């Protein structure tokens, strides 16, 4: 089940936080709860992606995007993800989540998120390709950024992010047709 109450709690916690610039980093703290674990008593990989919503959506609020979504009737969509899992997160372990907009291109906004253990080790990391959608389809990042009052060019994507973006563009669709 989707953790609606946890998401509402995060939105409540950060409702009066300082506004962030478009590429600012939102830091939040979370616990791995009993319903987040898998058979191996660690944070389930699917639940990890769900918990990333707990950082990404408050980030959207802090940069002013939620106000724009409501005003325009737009929605958020995930168009792709690349995840690396490196360290286990066990039940009741506290984690720090960091969320930020990494860059954007003509169609998509790329959001980077990571979970950090209290030891200082990075447990996992994700790069999301996100899109805003409206009645007319995908809303271009330049239009979204204009609504936010941000007119600067996209930050350059790191080489690893560019490589993923380029590699993913080579994937066939629909899949498994070869």
Please, could you describe this protein's structure?
The protein is an alpha+beta fold. The chain has one domain (4-169): Thiol Ester Dehydrase, Chain A (Roll). The protein contains five helices and six strands, in the order H-E-H-H-E-E-E-E-E-H-H. The protein has helices at residues 4-13, 45-62, 65-72, 141-147, 159-169; strands at 26-31, 75-85, 94-104, 109-117, 122-134, 137-139. Strands 1, 2, 3, 4, 5 and 6 form a six-stranded antiparallel beta sheet that branches. Helix 1 (4-13) runs parallel beside helix 2. The N and C termini lie far apart (35 Å).
Structural class: alpha+beta
Helical residues, percent? 25-40%
Stretches where pLDDT falls below 50 for ≥5 residues?
A: none
**Total discrete domains:** 1
Distance between the termini: 35 Å
* CATH-scheme architecture: Roll
Number of strands: 6
Instruction: Output the CATH homologous superfamily.
Output: Hotdog Thioesterase
Largest sheet: 6 strands, antiparallel
- What's the tally of helices? 5
Overall shape: it is globular
The percent range for strand residues is 25-35%
The CATH class: Alpha Beta
The arrangement of helices and strands along the chain is HEHHEEEEEHH
CATH topology: Thiol Ester Dehydrase, Chain A
Average the pLDDT over all residues and give the rounded result.
95
The Cα radius of gyration reads 17 Å
